[in-house]
Fold this sequence. Notes:
Oligomer: single chain
Shape: globular
Radius of gyration: 18 Å
Strand content: under 5%
Structural class: mainly alpha
Number of domains: 1
Order of helices and strands: HHHHHHHH
Amino acid sequence: xxxxxxxxxxxxxxxxxxxxxxxxxxxxxxxxxxxxxxxxxxxxxxxxxxxxxxxxxxxxxxxxxxxxxxxxxxxxxxxxxxxxxxxxxxxxxxxxxxxxxxxxxxxxxxxxxxxxxxxxxxxxxxxxxxxxxxxxxxxxxxxxxxxxxxxxxxxxxxxxxxxxxxxxxxxxxxxxxxxxxxxxxxxxxxxxxxxxxxxxxxxxxxxxxxxxxxxxxxxxxxxxxxxxxxxxxxxxxx
Length: 238
């Protein structure tokens, strides 16, 4: 019988977490030495392709991890309002984390995190670079990050912590922390805190939506599209 996230053995869950996370971090570190700007997207997508092949060899797929067909008209119609809630939550959480960090003296709220200019500074007024980052947004960020940080990490952490009380909460916290760390290398402490807080909210919504990734994918893609469009138009300097 194929294991689901609910019945997946803790041993297999831990093995998959160790294998996948170690590869993703190791491959990204290697790419950092060659192509730093695109190391994150390339390593993430490569990791997901290899993990998908692993699932396929086992006769499994991403459906139990959240990338599933939506049954019935009601579930399809719910995607848009669920995505809207996620979108508002992302903006609200990011802004609240920014204000909180400013009040605590961790950074200046309006200050651009270190590394952002180096990574995205060439976007303004540059249509090819803007379109490239939009492509990365809807592949690596929208699909890739939601599949990895929510679909994979949360289901596997929850299975690994199955014998511990509040395993779902722990899974969301651990996945959120890793999501924050994934933004540390080019946004510093501010990216770690802000993205970590957003990761917690998206993780909670993932469980609230009964492990349905589609609203989160849509919201994530729309948020990043708005951000990159603002950078392209120079509105972030207004």
